[in-house]
Design a protein that fits this description.
Number of helices: 3
Strand content: 15-25%
Radius of gyration: 13 Å
Order of helices and strands: EEEHEEHH
Oligomer: single chain
Largest sheet: 5 strands, antiparallel
Helix content: 25-40%
């Protein structure tokens, strides 16, 4: 069964999921990420309003989806299902800028 990883992004910080969770399909992982995002929005209000999101990665550690942390599941789902360029950070950084996905607490 494929394993998926759920990373937490908050401002410039990243908490990488070291173990992941097994799901039969991408859709199961996406539903789990949406629920995580909703739960985090309720428990940690500072993560809301575009300040935090959940990134879903597959077994090869490639990003497959991002979900904003929001209490409204319809809002989070609609933002996550936009065109990929709208939800994925630009990779056109200059060489002196640090990639925020490499930072950890």
């Amino acid at each position: 069964m494929p394993r998926f990883y759920f990373d937490l992004y908050f401002d410039r910080y990243v908490v990488l999921d070291p173990g992941g969770m097994p799901f039969e399909h991408n859709a199961g992982a996406q539903v789990a990420a949406l629920q995580m995002a909703r739960d985090l929005a309720i428990i940690h209000s500072e993560l809301r309003n575009g300040r935090g999101w959940i990134r879903v990665r597959d077994e090869r550690r490639h990003e497959i989806q991002r979900f904003p942390i929001d209490v409204d599941p319809d809002s989070a789902w609609s933002m996550a299902t936009r065109e990929p360029t709208a939800r994925v950070m630009s990779h056109s950084r200059s060489s002196h800028e640090e990639d925020p996905s490499n930072r950890q607490f």
